[in-house]
Design goal:
single chain, TIM Barrel, eight-stranded parallel beta barrel, two-stranded antiparallel sheet, 10 strands, 12% strand, 3-keto-5-aminohexanoate cleavage activity, Transposase, metal-binding, metal ion binding
Length: 352
């Protein structure tokens, strides 16, 4: 991405898209009973509350009535149908992990099988987006958490902590290409959840080979534990690697969330918040609901002079429903240099 003179002026930046992640699959309802929905009606009301607070993208998971993360696609279908009625304009983004929560004490926190995750392309009604990880990788979501982050929660249980500490993401190239193909075939946008520049380079190679022909809408997930750490140098390098046509959201965990989101607001990027990422105020004097976190970002963005995108504006910014007809168009629209032609020497560039 190029930051020309005036790039930090709010009048030259797109309106802010706020993604809400209010379902917190790593927590149990006892960890934050005031804000963790369990029943289907509570799931839907949480989405309504987040939308009314200013979020236009909903990152969703769903629970069974016993409070554990659901691995049943029928529950996702039920939730999607209810959300289409309650928040019809909101961008519905299904978490591609489905639910990585361990089913029992001491069990591993793991993602569902490859074949089951492919079935996300067949959800009815279809979501707008499904998130996808690139390249099999460690996802130790507790590596950066300190004792104060997990005090009094189920993650303080050594068995639960170990389950999440040892979690990995299965995302080999064959599965990724097939998953993206199925999502695109159903008109569902792939939202790339990327940990490092090397994963971004893999997505670029997919585009150059015609394995993905759509807009590069992505999140930089800076949570450590196999992902980048949320520091300024990693952020600057990742942003510099992103092409000008991409749409970038920043994501982190616990008390890193707010500072990183403030950087995103200032830089003209987009933000994500909610109890899936953090449950505390910056002083850790109390827990902070997803709606409170959204309202906080709305206030801050307005102080920066940057307006909040409406649902229709967010759909335009995220290029929902957009796919491209060729490799050349995909590269050009996303801001990558074209592929090298046979016999071509030197650096490639798009024709004027």
């Amino acid at each position: 991405m190029n930051f020309l003179d005036g790039s930090l002026f709010p009048e030259n930046q797109p309106k802010l898209v706020i993604t809400a992640a209010p379902y917190g699959p790593e927590w149990m309802p006892s960890d934050f009973p005031e804000d963790i929905p369990v029943s289907m009606d509570e799931h839907i009301q949480k989405a309504v509350d987040c939308y009314n607070a200013g979020a236009t993208v909903l990152h969703l998971h769903v629970r069974e009535l016993d409070g554990k993360g659901s691995k049943r696609l029928s529950k996702f279908n039920e939730l999607l149908a209810g959300l289409r009625q309650a928040v019809p304009d909101m961008i519905l983004q299904v978490g591609g992990s489905i639910s990585f929560a361990p089913e029992g004490e001491g069990e591993a926190a793991k993602w569902l099988s490859d074949d089951t995750r492919h079935m996300l392309a067949d959800l009815t009604p279809a979501p707008d987006q499904v998130t996808i990880a690139i390249n099999t990788n460690q996802m130790n979501v507790v590596e950066q958490m300190c004792d104060a982050d997990i005090a009094g929660t189920t993650l303080a249980d050594p068995a639960m902590y170990h389950a999440y500490r040892e979690m990995t993401i299965p995302a080999g190239p064959g599965w990724v290409e097939e998953h993206v193909r199925r999502l695109s075939e159903k008109g569902i946008q792939t939202h790339f959840q990327l940990a490092t520049i090397s994963q971004l380079e893999t997505v670029e190679r997919m585009m150059r080979r015609g394995k993905f022909m759509g807009p590069l809408v992505l999140t930089w997930v800076a949570i450590g534990g196999g992902f980048d750490a949320p520091n300024l140098y990693n952020l600057a390098n990742f942003v510099r690697a992103c092409p000008d046509g991409s749409v970038l959201t920043l994501e982190s965990s616990m008390l890193n969330v707010l500072p990183l989101n403030m950087m995103a607001i200032a830089l003209g990027l987009h933000v994500r918040c909610g109890i899936e990422d953090n449950i505390w105020t910056q002083r850790r004097d109390r827990k902070m609901s997803s709606v409170e976190q959204i309202e906080q970002l709305v206030r801050l963005s307005r102080e920066f002079g940057r307006d909040i995108a409406t649902a229709s504006e967010a759909r335009e910014i995220y290029k929902i429903g957009t796919f491209y007809g060729s490799i050349d168009e995909t590269l050009a629209k996303n801001g990558f240099a074209p592929n090298r032609k046979p016999g071509q020497v030197g650096f490639t560039q798009h024709a004027a």
